[in-house]
Amino acid sequence: MAPEIDQQVKPLAPKAYRFRSDEDEALYMQQRLHRRRCIKCCGCFTALFLILAVVMLVLAFTVFHIKDPVIRMNSVTLQQPVGAGALRATVIADVSVKNPNLVAFRYGNSTTTVYYRGEMVGEGTIPQGKAKARRTQRMNMTMYIMLDKILAVPSYNKDSNSGALPMSTFTKLSGSVKILKIKKKNVVVEMNCSFTYNVTSKAIFQDNKCNSCVRL
């Protein structure tokens, strides 16, 4: 008979508990504190990035978004009635420049040209200036109309007999908008207006037909 094999399993010896030394404990606390600081720094940078993103988004739709300035010819009046022997007529136009932007719109000297039946018969000058943020700048512009050029137009006699001379003006205003002294955007505003000179009353009637366009 074969000898019996002792199949009794001996229990494993319990694993010895590893005690931490003071140096290990200090190192563990230092690493834990370092991780906390890293998490806080990452959180701060993330929050700062989100705040900057929101600020830039708001600026993109407000300050950095350049709106079209608007130029208008509010009224046109004849300052000096046309008399016998007069060489030119002086016309005063009430012009306004509306700036809808959050920064100032600066423009240089601009010219307004007067036409009669497609022929240039006079001009005026708008002095350089500045339309403040969200403000309207109003000014008086003097235009000089040369009468000899009007008389040289072939249809003058016909229009004079009808009592009305149809005229028009073209104004080009060039300026710029500077944002935070960093971004500069050039703006060109063009405007076409029409009015009628009454031969009998020697008065100018504005037809309220002004078309303007803006080129950025």
TrEMBL record:
The keyword Transport is assigned to this record: no
Coiled coil (residue ranges): none
Alphabetical list of InterPro entries matching this protein: Lea14-like_2 (IPR055301), LEA_2 (IPR004864)
TM stretches of this protein: 38-64
Pfam hit, one: LEA_2
The keyword 4Fe-4S is annotated on this UniProt entry: no
Keywords in alphabetical order: Membrane, Transmembrane, Transmembrane helix
Late embryogenesis abundant protein LEA-2 subgroup domain location: 95-194
Name recorded for this polypeptide: Uncharacterized protein LOC118347702
